[in-house]
Specification:
It is built from 8 helices and 7 strands, in the order E-H-E-H-E-H-E-H-E-H-E-H-H-H-E. It is an alpha/beta fold. It has a single domain, classed as Rossmann fold (3-Layer(aba) Sandwich). Strands 3-2-1-4-5-6-7 form a 7-stranded parallel beta sheet, sandwiched between helices. Helix 1 runs parallel beside helix 2, helix 1 crosses helix 8 and helix 3 packs parallel to helix 4. The two termini are 36 Å apart.
Length: 262
């Protein structure tokens, strides 16, 4: 059986845990070699061993995606480790920012932190991988956005604004690099089961005086399918967008949210 990403070279930011780590595992199962980027080395080392047990190569590169010099090193070391190619970039790094906070209570420094991590931290990897992708006339870029970039999200102004910004970035870059056979798409997860969802439910419950279970059930009842998205659901969609099965898709917003945004 042919694997969809056989011998492709992929950089994944935010690879240490959650969706990012599951995307890396899915990529390795589909035959890709990986450059693993996140702030902390230890979880990347654990993940690299998982990738290697699947017969794929893994480069561990601790990276702050808001630091341009660090991003340039990530790209340079990926090229050096894998024969000069970079076929795929997945921008999965990001932060949630203030939760259940009206816009007039958001601290300016918290706003700036969200914008730096989610927008600048997506822009910089794109900027630095594109010269390689343009030269090889091939590339797949997948930006992990969110359904809060498709509609308003009460009491999450900084997060929602950053995700709307990613839609604009995705579409604009797609127009600029399409002539070089580079696809640029955004994946919009809804609420995804895991530590981040648990923290979100706990914080919302604390501020509302309810329980995390009640908050979770509110989310579920807003979904057409009445089930929470899993990290595997997201990883499967990213594999599709990173493969040649999606070769004529670019500038698109692909939503995986159980029907929350319907």
């Amino acid at each position: 059986m042919t694997r969809r990403l056989e011998d492709r070279i992929a950089i994944v930011t935010g690879a240490a845990k959650g969706m990012g780590a599951d995307i890396c595992r899915a990529f390795a199962r589909e035959g890709a070699h990986l450059a693993l980027a996140a702030r902390e080395r230890a979880p990347l080392e654990v993940l690299s061993r998982e990738v290697e047990t699947l017969g794929r190569q893994a480069l561990v590169e601790p990276t702050d995606v808001t630091d341009e010099d660090a991003v340039q090193r990530l790209v340079d070391r990926t090229r050096a480790a894998f024969g000069g190619r970079i076929d795929i970039l997945v921008n999965a790094a990001g932060v949630t920012g203030p939760i259940e906070t009206p816009v007039w209570e958001i601290k300016a420094e918290d706003w700036d932190h969200v914008m730096a991590a989610n927008v600048r931290g997506t822009f910089l990897p794109i900027k630095h991988v594109l010269p390689t992708m343009i030269a090889q006339r091939y590339g797949k870029i997948v930006n992990i956005s969110g359904t809060s970039g498709l509609r308003g999200y009460k009491h999450r102004a900084s997060y929602a604004s950053s995700k709307w910004a990613l839609r604009g970035l995705t579409r604009t870059v797609a127009l600029e690099v399409g002539p070089y056979n580079i696809n640029v798409n955004a994946l919009h997860p809804g609420i995804v089961a895991g530590d981040r969802m648990d923290r979100l439910c706990r914080e919302k419950a604390r501020r509302r005086g309810s329980t995390p279970e009640q908050v979770r059930e509110e989310y579920v009842q807003e979904m057409a399918l009445r089930r929470v998205t899993t990290a595997d659901d997201i990883a499967n969609a990213v594999v599709f967008l990173a493969s040649d099965a999606s070769k004529n898709m670019t500038g698109q917003s692909v939503t995986v949210d159980g029907g929350w945004d319907v």
